[in-house]
Amino acid sequence: MQWLYCDFHIHTTWSDGKNSLDNVVALYGEVGFDVIAITDHVLDSESISRYGRTASELFVMDESKFDAYQEALWGAARSAWEKYGMLVIPGVELTNNTNRYHILGLDIKEYISPDLGVEQIIESISRQQGISVACHPYSRNHSGDDPSFFLWENHERLATLFDAWEVANRDDLFNVVGLKKFNYIGSSDFHEKRHLLSWKTLLQCEKNVESVKEAIRKNDRVSLFLYRGGKIRHD
Ligand code: ZN
Ligand code: ZN
User: Fold this and answer.
1) What is the mean pLDDT of the chain?
2) What is the CA(73)–ligand 2 centre distance, in A?
3) Is the separation of the CB atoms in 71 and 78 below 8 Å?
4) pLDDT tens-digit series, residues 32-87
5) Is the pLDDT of residue 176 over 90?
6) Domains along the chain?
7) Exposure string (b/e) for 64-92, b if CB count within 10 Å is 16 or more?
């Protein structure tokens, strides 16, 4: 069976990404990716009031914009499939900078507040048949003050609640995730074009959303690859 080239952590101008949704789809589609998830930030309300205007400009794709965001993603998914044969999975990064956790919800249909506790968020994602991913759970080279250490501090309790953990995020590898033998994926945490050259996930499964989700959950036919540019060859 084929190996699919996947990136499950991508930001656009719907939050703090530099590229528009159409632009991102074209970028990944043209080099031959099979599956991408768009995961713009929704930010916890305490951080929104703390950051003030910058937050609403940079981060917030809040509840009032969520339906429009979802519609834009469905539209992008349709055209990406027609044009490139690439799956686009609608997602979100539940960003709680007050309590320090970032969680990806993939293929969710309804808004989830990032103010909720980790267990409640995971439960809500799985109730919607989505995929929950613990984001950059360990310290990263490019980020001194890590916003998501809570997940690692509580990893014993949270280990198997998540469908997967990021073992790689952009340039960073988290060997602790590997040592614990958690389900894993690797992603770019794409915010701008140069982030395309980074860790990604390979999955061996059929190219449809249900099979991709099942492959992440089972996590037995999964691998990492470091994308260095150029056309991806499927052979
Ligand atoms: Zn994050
Ligand atoms: Zn992110």
Assistant:
1) 92
2) 17
3) no
4) 999 999 999 999 989 888 887 666 566 667 788 899 999 999 999 999 999 999 99
5) no
6) 3-226 (3.20.20.140)
7) ebbeebbebbeebbeebeeebebbbbbbb
DSSP class of 69 = H
- For residue 228, how far is its CA from the centre of ligand 2 (angstroms)? 20
Spacing, Cα 93 to ligand 2 middle (Å): 6
Question: 130: CA distance to ligand 1 center in Å?
Answer: 18
Q: What is the Cα–Cα distance from 203 to 216, expressed in whole angstroms?
A: 8
Nearest Cα residue to 95 out of 67, 135, 130, 125: 135
- The overall longest dimension of the chain from CA atoms, in Å, is 50
Distance 93 CA to ligand 1 centre (A): 7
Ligand nearest the Cα of residue 92 is 2
Nearest bound ligand to the CA of residue 143 = 1
Ligand nearest to the CA of 96: 1
Distance CA 46, CA 52 (A): 10
Q: Which of 58, 68, 37, 55 is nearest to 212 (CA)?
A: 37
Placement of tokens 């140069």 in the chain: 194
Residue 104 alpha carbon to ligand 1 centre in Å: 9
Give the pair of three-digit tokens for residue 73.
């993603």
Q: Name the strand (E) or helix (H) holding 121.
A: helix 118-127
φ/ψ of residue 82, rounded to 5: -65, -45
pLDDT digits (tens, 9 = 90+) for 73-125: 999 999 999 999 999 999 999 999 999 999 999 999 999 999 999 999 999 99
